[in-house]
Structure formats: C-alpha cells, structure tokens
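USER:
I wish I could look at a protein chain and see how it folds. I am handing you a single protein, as its sequence and its fold in token form. As I understand it, each token names a local backbone shape. I hope you can help me see how the letters and the tokens relate. The protein I mean follows directly.
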Amino acid sequence: MDTATTTKNPFAYYVSSAAFSPSYDALQQRTPIPKLTSLKIESLILSYSTLESILQVCTNLAKLRLPCVTLAERLNRPFQHLDTWHNVSDIIVPSDRIKAETSRYCPLLTEYKLKYDASCITPQLLANAVTNVTRITFEKEEMAFETISAIVLHGATWKKVALFSYECDYEMDKVNPVSMQIAAFNKMLQLIPRNCTPLEKLNLYPYEMDTDVAEAVEWVCKDLRKLRIRVKELNTKEKILKTIALWRAGCWRRWQKMATGANAVVAVEEEEKQLEEDHSIEARVARHLLKFEQLWWVWLGYKTWTPIKIKHKEQSNATTYRISISP
C-alpha cells in the first residue's frame, strides 16, 4: 500500500501492498502471473501507482473489482485484457473522463456493474460514455426514469440489462414479494424490451409487468434467452407453475412441428388453437413467452425454469443429468 498521499483517512486501516498482492516475490521481480484472470480488492485507500505495480504482473487479468476502494491518482498504464471494471467509490468522476480513460486503457471493456444512486452520474454515464459496453447490472432494486431513458438511447447496443440484490433468492421455495408496483415505472420499463433489439438477458425481478401493457407493443428482443420479472396477477405458486407448464407444452409443439410430418402438425395446431382461445392470465403469459424461440431460463417469482425438465441424479462420485423433453 502506498501511504504517501496528502491526507489520510482516520477511519482507514493502512497496510503495505505486500499484504494483499497476489505474490509479493513475483511483484518485486516482475514475474508474470498468467493464471490470474480475476482480482478483487476491497475497502482500501489505494494509489494508482500501487495498483499498477500489482496489475503489471497480472498479464491476463480480465475482471477487476474494487468495491469501497478510493483511487487517489490517475491510471497511467493500459490493461489490454480487462473487460470488466467494478469500482464503488464516493468520488464523482465526469462521464466524459470515464469514456476517455476506459476507451484508452480498457478498450475491451464490455460490462458496467453500478451501485445505483439517484444523485450519481449513472444516467449521464449511460447516455454519454457507452462505447463497447453491452451489459449493465445495477446492484440496487430501483431504477430512475432518467436511467431507463439513457438505456433506451443505446437500444441497439445492450445484450444484458439487470437489477441485482444479494437479498433476493431466485430458487427459494416460495413466491418472492413484489417490491416495485408503481404503474408509471412498469410502463417505462417496457421501453427496454421494446427498444433493445440485441437483448439476451433481462432481469427486472423487483418489478411487476402488466400483461395488458406488454401485449400492447411488441418486444423486439427476439434473441432473449433469460428473463426474470414478476407479472401482475401471477402471484401464487400454482399460477406460476401452470404458466410454465403451458410454456413448456408450447415449446414441445414447436419442436414437434420441426421434427415431424404433416399428420402430427394437425394435432399440434389444434392444441395451439386451444391456447390461443384461453384468456386466463397463465395462458396470456405463456403466449408471450413463446414469442421468444431462444428463451431458455424463465423466472416469474418462483424458481427458475427451462423448457425441458432436467433431473439431477448423483451416482457414486459422478453427477449425471437425466433430461425429459415431454411437456
């Protein structure tokens, strides 16, 4: 740790860089550590020169996380392999500087992970500093109108938009509560799947989607592979499980059409007609899910589901997977 800064934080615990560097001997001898691809340094006041001395030996570093780390100086050395930089700090940096320095020093950067705060520069950052970034994760449960607008501004770019919380357990054996039910937000959030064509992963788990609003305008993200969102009126285990069963049956019919002849198609079309005439909330949501042929992971408030049933069975020291493709 380089402690030769102008002021010291009285609440910080200062240590030497030898205490947390990957290998101090390697650091001193500048011996590369090619196997290290991910590094996390937390809750420290750190100069860029100290950080550089560590990263110079990490020649293949791809992910760098610096939660609660204050960086006191400018970064002077590029890290060409870096594609994810996670830094949580109270220091507000202008978005144009972020754009300039990430473009220069981290040209392969593809993901932002942000601690969202209504007073921070997040909307300005997304609107002005996005270059090659295609994935964004907010480690909070709320999203402002300005942030949604900034995301939509780059609708042709985003492959992943997600909200994340350590408190949410997607696989717990009960229906997760809905924490965001503001109607205006629900309508604004629809702008993301309506405008982000490349979107593959969408996680808006705290929010409740209104099916009427979702059906009003087509979602353009036809390559969607993972979806996590709540649905209005789909608020019990039984309703969610029925929706998943209808979705799986629809996927099965699609595969039958692709693999069988005209005789089977007649029966399949009859089942599709029955689903089309069903106006229950479960059927409406299932029809919406079936619009995305690449969709593989679905979370509607109770566990994560796939189009096929995957059963895990352990035998001796090996784990085998038994797959059933029946609806």
The chain has two domains: 1-91, 93-324. Residues 1-6, 17-24, 312-327 have pLDDT under 50 and may be disordered.
